[in-house]
Amino acid sequence: MNIPPDLSYSADHEWVRRDGNTVTIGITDYAQDALGDVVFVETPEQGSTVTVGDSFTEVESTKSVSDINAPVAGTIGEANDALDDHPELLNSDPYGEGWICQIEMSDPSDFDALLDADAYRALTDA
């Protein structure tokens, strides 16, 4: 399982890449593997606000429909519109082209509560 050391993670299997006060979010390799073949991604609405733990979008796979929860609070910025036509990017490139959206954090301390790669690895190995 691929767990890049330069990212942070939520216990709900989202990865987070920080650039200043903006974070890019996607689902982890572990999550995409558990979901199976992704067939639809509801991209979140730009400008909507989210709080930590709130479902802000859904991913549909051949196995189930899963909520994606916000790992930080803030305002949805750019969403990855490529997922509209190519939802399988979540499977083939979860840490690259398969990103879901960016969030402008309203409380940057939310980021500090996320897991590092070692803690996320321990969570998924349990």
Q: Which strands sit side by side, in order, in the main sheet?
A: 1-2-3-9-8-5
Q: How far apart, in Å, are the first and last alpha carbons?
A: 14 Å
The total of helices stands at 5
Helix content: 10-25%
Query: Which class of secondary structure composition applies to the elements?
Result: alpha+beta
- Radius of gyration, Cα only, in angstroms? 13 Å
Number of strands: 9
Describe the secondary structure blueprint for this structure.
Elements: E1 8-9, E2 14-19, E3 22-27, H1 29-35, E4 38-41, E5 49-50, E6 55-61, E7 65-69, E8 74-79, H2 82-85, H3 89-92, E9 101-105, H4 109-112, H5 117-125
Antiparallel strand pairs: 1-2, 2-3, 3-9, 4-6, 5-8, 6-7, 8-9
Keywords:
alpha+beta; three-stranded antiparallel beta sheet; 22% helix
Structural features, described:
This protein is of the alpha+beta class and 126 residues long. The chain has a single domain (8-114), classed as OB fold (Dihydrolipoamide Acetyltransferase, E2P), CATH 2.40.50. 22% of the residues lie in helices and 34% in strands. The protein contains five helices and nine strands, in the order βββαβββββααβαα. The chain has helices at residues 29-35, 82-85, 89-92, 109-112, 117-125, and strands at 8-9, 14-19, 22-27, 38-41, 49-50, 55-61, 65-69, 74-79, 101-105. The protein has a six-stranded antiparallel beta sheet. A three-stranded antiparallel beta sheet has the order 4-6-7. It is globular and about 35 Å long.
